[in-house]
Amino acid sequence: RIQTWYQRQGHYDVRVETKEKTVDGQLMLTIDVVPGPVYTLREIVFQGNAEISDARLRDLMTTSLPSLLRRGSGRLVQADLDADVESLQRYYALSGYTRAEIGPPQVERQGQDLRLVIPVKEGPRERVASLTFQGIVALDLEKLRKDLKLRELGGFHPVLLDNTLDYIRTQYAAKGFSHAQVSARQEWHANHTLVDLTVEVLEGPRQVADRILVRGNQRTQGDVIRRTLDLRHGDPVSQTRLFEVERNLYQLGIFSRVDAELVPAGLDETERDVLIRVQEGKPRSILYGFGWDSETGFRGSLAFADNNVWGRAYSLRTDLRWSQRDKRFHFTFNQPYLGEHPVALTSNLYYEEEAPADRPYEVTRYGARIEAVRVYSNRRYSLGFDYRIVEPSVNPGIASNQIERLDQPYYVTSFVPSFFLDHRDDPISPTRGWSSLAQIQYAFPLPAFSTDTEFLKVFLQETQYYNLGRPGVLVGSARLGTIQPYKAIPTSGGIVLDFPSRNVPIAERFFAGGDATHRAYGQDELGIRGETLIRNPNGGGFVPVGGDGLLLINLEYRFPIAGAFGGVLFLDSGNVWPDWRAIRLAEVKNGIGLGARYNSPIGPVRAGIGFKLNREHGEPSYALFFNIGNPF
Question: What distances in angstroms separate CA 276 from CA 177, 217, 245, 518, one per listed residue?
Fold first, then answer.
């Protein structure tokens, strides 16, 4: 460890000697360290490789040349080098070069620089000449071929063959063929570099579910459990499928324990009873509290929750908070199923009254939202109905730019369908794949509910993740938003609607600037002066009022530094326009920046700085940001 530590500091020739001596019955250990000069690894050369490139071999190594983006690079550490040689040996073997020889490495000293030479003797390559299958009926053979790592004319190694057979067994088990026998026959050509493989399968009987037996439920109705299982009579059963059954039941949030197992039966039995044992948790809870502070005076709260209403796995939440200045009531009702269909339905009601001490007005908010969600693997469909009213009470003559955005008058009923397609490898910290989001909002007047707004809002987003291996991850995102108003909004309550895009409520317009949109600008500060940024009549600077057109393009390079810490370089471009037809690439504002990331258990924690490339007079040259979560 001492030698490794010194070598990581550049002392490749460090000498560590230990001496032991017994004095008066005690063992004394002396460690002599001679660090030697500091070296920098300047060149890595492979000699003898013909089929596999130098670049590919370097990517497999921990040892690397100096790089500002990689901690510890440019140092030669013997322990790392030994591990690299083993890694290269394994890679060659799994590529079919079972007789390849790597090393021993040679280290050449050139002043304070090191040159690493790694000899390679590739030898003959063993390849798969043909790959045929016999006895496969229950699986899609074409799809199976695409999923296997062992391919015709590809490298051969016994480990690859074993992995292939295990994968086929897993696929059969998932379809209920838990006793399927899978083996392979090898026929080598005369030179022992080509092999004909024949995978032979004896599928055997298929196990399917017979009766679904449920035990332990006292409050929860049995049909709710059976419907949630996603397992019916005649479906294939396997251990993997039983794990999925347990997961589905846990997701209801009403059970403290779930066990799913097959009832013992004879070896020849193809129909198996499935036994589900559940233990219900406490369904109801009540929370309350009282307090006082100098701004709102006396305050109190009362909350009630029931996770299993009527034994149907419905959940109900009520939250009541009141003070001398504020009153809030929220009601939420969740249904995991809509009738017999696996469509989650969430209903919300709310009512709020606020009288902020630092604002010259009071505001009342109330409304409702109903959303239905259906998830198919990596696809999410949703349809929502939204009803929202915001009514500020202000003195005559107050302009709307004196009222906070969320407190502006707002009378909207709308339908909001959306679609999300997720091909990322991780929803919290993705490193490869892509995702697409499409959302439409149609707001329409409904006199019975006192709403008078009509517009169509469309938002599209595409995000791509490219895994570069050890160098890090490259992320690109594009967002486009349009709003088309169809009806003028009348003035109300003495408020002067003097903003551009005034026929769309300000709470529904697009805003940009900040850690999740354009990091060279402060929160909501991106826009066009005189159109989506208006001059503040009560002071200097400009006030963001949003717009009906949005275009954002983000490019980000995430690279590792040490452990869970990483760095970020980014380029953000975009703007907000008063009309979607006015979007012009010439008016796009650009920014560059850098930052740091920490992958915490709750998601990435980010901080950084962005610099404006199209700075206007009076604008700060940079913006700082800090947030938890990914920007896009």
Answer: 21, 10, 9, 51
Two tokens at 622?
Answer: 């940079």
Give the residue from 324, 220, 333, 204 showing the smallest Cα distance to 279: 220
Length of the chain: 632
* Domain count within the chain: 4
Q: Which two tokens stand for residue 386?
A: 């939204």
Residues 11 and 154 in one domain: no
Report the predicted TM-score, pTM, of the whole model to 2 decimal places.
0.77
Residues 6 or more apart from 139 whose CB is under 8 A from it?
A: 168, 171, 172, 175
**pLDDT, position 601:** 83
Amino acid at 553: I
- 409 with 506, same domain: the answer is yes
Residue 147 backbone dihedrals phi, psi, to 5 degrees: -85, -20
User: Beta strand pairing status for 113-121 and 101-102?
Assistant: antiparallel
In sequence order, the 6+-apart residues with CB closer than 8 A to the CB of 582 are 549
User: 214 and 182, same structural domain?
Assistant: no
Residues ≥6 apart with Cβ < 8 Å to 314: 308, 333, 334, 335, 336
The three-point CA angle 464-469-474 to 5° equals: 30
Structure tokens at 126: 């063993």
pLDDT tens digits, 366-405: 999 999 999 998 999 999 999 999 988 876 666 555 677 7
The reply to whether 303 falls in a domain is no
56 φ, ψ (degrees, to nearest 5): -65, -40
Q: What is the mean pLDDT of residues 55-83?
A: 86
Q: Give the pairing type, strands 113-121 and 40-47.
A: parallel
What is the residue whose two structure tokens read 């083993």? 86
Within a domain: 328 = no
Residue 360's pLDDT is: 75
Distance of CA 409 to the CA centre of its chain: 36
